[in-house]
Amino acid sequence: MPVQSLPIRDSAFHVRLLHQYLILLKNYPILTKSVTSGILSAMGNLLSQALEAKRKAKEGTPVKEIDISGPARFAIYGLLITGPVSHYFYQFMEVLMPTTVPYCMVKRLLLDRLIFAPAFLLLFFFVMNILECTWWADFQSKVNSSYWPFININYVAVEFRVLFANMVALFWYAYLASVRK
After folding, report:
1. Contact 83/30 with Cβ under 8 angstroms?
2. Mind telling me which residue stretches traverse the membrane in this protein (predicted)?
3. Contact between residue 50 and residue 61 where contact means Cβ atoms under 8 Å apart
């Protein structure tokens, strides 16, 4: 008697899910993007905490429980900031640089990476500072330690980029070597 395999996943389910998402995008574009951003942002924070816990467990250091306030803050940020701001920015880019504009893809990429990404990262640090109820000095410290290195790689003169990348790599390799121990 022949045995018929049953699929583990119903591929039609994925198609229906995508179809429903497209309907929601058409009917409620900002809300759909905002909710999606909130969920994915929270999941990103949870993933980060899980990876950190796994690393600490492997090292034999004490592992903290999942901090629910982290995913909550990221969900709020995704819902209220990432979704709406990204929606309007990309709509603005479509109007500013339609596909008929020569080199529109390059221009969009440059606008996104040189203007939007640095501003959005600064906004992220600012909003997270508010959501974490931390002081202005904490915000300034975070900007100095995380924001400026991001900006420098985007604005370092061409002749110094390899040197700059090598200096960053020096610390990155030192970090990787310490993790491997």
Report:
1. yes
2. 114-137, 157-176
3. no
The tokens 């221009």 sit on which residue? 107
Contact 104, 97 (CB under 8 A): yes
- Sequence-ordered list of residues with C-beta below 8 angstroms from that of 108, at least 6 positions apart, any chain: 93, 97
pTM as predicted:
0.72
Which amino acid, one-letter code, is at 93?
M
Other Cβ atoms less than 10 A from the Cβ of 42: the count is 21
CA-based nearest residue to 46, from 20, 25, 65, 26: 65
- pLDDT per residue as tens digits for the range 13-55: 888 888 999 999 999 999 999 999 999 999 999 998 888 899 9
* Amino acid type, 161: R
User: If DSSP states are collapsed to H, E and C, what string results for the chain?
Assistant: CCCCCCCCCCHHHHHHHHHHHHHHHHHCHHHHHHHHHHHHHHHHHHHHHHHHHHHHHHHCCCCCCCCCHHHHHHHHHHHHHHHHHHHHHHHHHHHHCCCCCCCHHHHHHHHHHHHHHHHHHHHHHHHHHHHCCCCHHHHHHHHHHHHHHHHHHHHCCHHHHHHHHHHHHHHHHHHHHHHHC
24 burial type by CB count under 10 A (0-12 exposed, 13-18 middle, 19+ buried): middle
